[in-house]
Amino acid sequence: MKFVDEAFIDVAAGDGGNGCVSFRHEKYKEFGGPDGGDGGRGGHVFALADPNLNTLVDYRYSRRHEARRGGHGMGSDMFGAAGSDITLKMPVGTIISDANTGQVLHELLNPGEVITIAKGGDGGFGNLRFKSSINRAPRQKTPGWPGERKNLKLELKVLADVGLLGMPNAGKSTFIAAVSNARPKIADYPFTTLHPNLGVVRVGPEQSFVVADIPGLIEGASEGAGLGHQFLRHLQRTRLLLHIVDLAPFDEGVDPVAQARAIVAELKKYDPALHAKPRWLVLNKLDMVPAEERAARVQDFVKRSKWQGPVFQISALTREGCEPLIKTIYQHVQAQQQAENAPAGEVDPRFDRSLDDDYQS
Known about the structure:
By secondary structure, this protein is α/β, with parallel strands linked by helices. It is built from five helices and 14 strands. A hairpin with a 2-residue loop joins β10 and β11. The mean pLDDT is 81.
């Protein structure tokens, strides 16, 4: 399936039905009075966060979505039927914004979440509504209200715990294939990955996290160079970034330290908040480095790059060092989840039993 993470659609809720002017006509009953019913409301347009979807491709080729209008009121006190609603299924992580102003209207963050993106118009009043003691035969009615119409931009930010960052051919796709159930395309040329890949990493029974692999970045990515800039938004919701570096580049003239610094600089230009996220250094392709040279090469890289954070040494191809890395990642992600779910604020001292000298545990 083609991956699409941005789409523009037009939605139109249904118009309300018109009210009716009618009078009761029944044999042997004069002065029957008004019996015109109200119009029905127009159909709403809903958005549903569907966990089974991972792309907006359906909305690339189907842009116009309209709900049905409400039925018109009729005589004999018959009200119009409400228009049929429509529900648009979207991937979890979709941001819905106004295409004209750019204002963010909704974010679908929870599976099964349903929101109203366009409200149907209310039905008009029939002349039955205008009956009173001084107006016994009203001939007034009102038309139905128009439904909302919007031009929307849909933008998908995948929900992943860990994001992979690095140059093309750094081994990101090989790593995600080695540790998860994802099967991305892997080849010996740059920009093999053309769209984000999501993989679920199983650490143990009921222990897992989601990792996202985006196309590789190059210098100038924040200004639009290469492919990775189109998908940097997918890293904004991750809890941890893994900066994967090719420790044994094919071209001997390439300096891994310079490449790593360029990636960090592009990240900071694109979004300072993304640059401030926890980031770990993962030195890949150790299988290409002789065993006796590994320690010295790693030490030289860390020293020249002035890296202060955690450093991991792996070979995604042989899976050497991958197991300790994913276990450490899971512990970090789990700690962050617990911190996010912890109740905010301090305990009121009136209810803190630990301050009570007479309390016996």
